[in-house]
Amino acid sequence: FLHEPKMAFAAVVFLLVGALCVPHHAGAARSPVLIIPGDGGSQLEAMASNKPSVPHFYCEKTFSWSQLWLSVSSLLPGVIDCWADNIKLLFDGSTGTYSNQTGVQVRVPGWGNVSAIEYLDPTNHALSAYMNKLVPFLTQQGLVPGVTLRAAPYDFRLHPRSSDFIPRFKALVEDTFAKGGNVPVTLISHSMGCLYGLHFLAAQPSSWKNMYIKQWIPISGPWTGTASEMRLMASGDNEGIPFVSPIDIRAEQRSYESNVWLMPTPGPEWGWDDVATVKTDTATYTTKNLTQFFNDIGFPEGVKMASYIANKTTPLFNNATIGVPTICLHGSELATDETYTYNKGDFPDKAPSVISGVGDGTVNARSLEVCANFSTMHTIYPKVDHTAMLSSQDVLEKIASLISG
Fold first, then answer.
1. CA of 107: how far to CAs of 56, 104, 165, 228, 264, in Å?
2. Residue 25 catalytic?
3. Is there a contact between 199 and 258 (Cβ–Cβ < 8 Å)?
4. What is the pTM for the complete model shown?
5. Pairing mode of beta strands 104-107, 44-48
6. Which whole number is the average pLDDT over 33-48?
7. Cα–Cα distance between 284 and 355 in angstroms, integer?
8. Which of 56, 253, 285, 366 could be disulfide-bonded to 293 (CB atoms 3.0-4.6 Å)?
9. What is the pLDDT of residues 83-126, one digit of tens each?
10. Judging by DSSP bridges, how do beta strands 334-341 and 353-359 pair with one another?
């Protein structure tokens, strides 16, 4: 549903690991920048032709290309059911593949265009601000939108392997390199965009990265998932938006490949196995009993969805695989959901109570800090939350220093 620009709806120690970052191309001109946004940080458009069914008589079965995400007016009571049915994915358990609802097509507008990630609803900037501070700041540094400052929005419902993101992004990097005077490109990614960036870099040969990439700046990366995805799967998550019922969007949220991907990662080395992320009067759930969790929430399909995601990301957490200077930035020291407790009879359809741990307000610290294992430089910003990292003056100045000469 929405994890990155959620703060817009509400209004929206410096640590070195290993050697200091030395860019590939010292003395070069200002590096062009390519931004990979996070989960919910790209616009989506949809059209439909003779959908076989709709949730209500007033939901359209046929409509021309129009804004699907973000469309604030589509989230209002009643019409949100139409929206959820249009954006929901279908999963084929025999192949592990995903498709749009029958009769629906979805596309991502704004490829290469940073205006597509500044505000997510073109008709409602007040409630859809995302990278509206970062993009103008980078422009002030001398970067030119569409030339040396570009973005790679994507279908955030999917894992990158389920789309053509990686080959398209490679071509975009090469084009940006050429447009910028053959100056190596800086990649900036936010939240789930960090996982996209990780998979992209792991897929490229060292010779290509040495030529085209100056550095990678992942911000607020959910490297091994977040506890909040457990509540999302169990009960739905409206991210605090008062007029949206979590139950109304639960089936839509469960259908996303990316939401399964962002669940806490099993394995003793990632720190989740002994964390009771969900408690009821009859069971306690951790990453050790996710099969039971999916069955108990009435979503057995999730077992197979998770099996196709398992072990796709964690083997990539090493310097050799990434192969470029990596400057990891994230917030810390903020209350972050860690355990959800359900009263008797409330699981999974009613809201749980929350026990907080620490993190950046969205991603738990144990997940954020995984980048210490592979980053060249690791800088932590106490009390700066997940999305505020994109507007913090300290963070912006750090980025400016990294892309200069």
1. 24, 10, 12, 27, 29
2. no
3. no
4. 0.93
5. antiparallel
6. 98
7. 14
8. 285
9. 999 999 999 999 999 999 999 999 999 999 999 999 999 999 99
10. antiparallel
Of 127, 131, 136, 271, the residue nearest 193 (C-alpha): 131
β-strands 334-341, 278-279 pairing = parallel
Distance CA 178, CA 194 (A): 24
pLDDT tens-digit profile of 252-287? 999 999 999 999 999 999 999 999 999 999 999 999
Q: What is the number of H-type helices and E-type strands within the chain? A: 15, 15
Mean pLDDT within 303-326: 91
Catalytic residue flag (residue 394): no
CA-nearest of 125, 146, 173, 142 to 12 is 125
Considering 360, 375, 378, 392, which one is annotated as catalytic? 360
Looking only at the bridges linking them, the beta strands covering 185-190 and 213-219 are: parallel
Report the percentage of the chain scoring pLDDT > 90.
88
**How far, in Å, are 2, 13, 72, 208 from residue 75 at the CA level?**
12, 40, 5, 43
Range 376-397 burial, b when 16+ CB lie within 10 A, else e: bbbbbbeebbbbbbbbbeebbe
Report pLDDT for 23.
Answer: 35
Catalytic residue among 191, 228, 255, 258: 191
Compute the average pLDDT of residues 396-402.
98
Q: Is 64 a catalytic residue?
A: no
Q: Are 147 and 179 in contact (CB under 8 A)?
A: yes
Angle at 137 between CA 136 and CA 142, to 5 degrees: 95
Q: Active site residue: 3, 159, 199, 386, which one? A: 386
Instruction: Report the amino acid identity of residue 167.
Output: P
Closest CA to 405 of 8, 29, 5, 108: 29
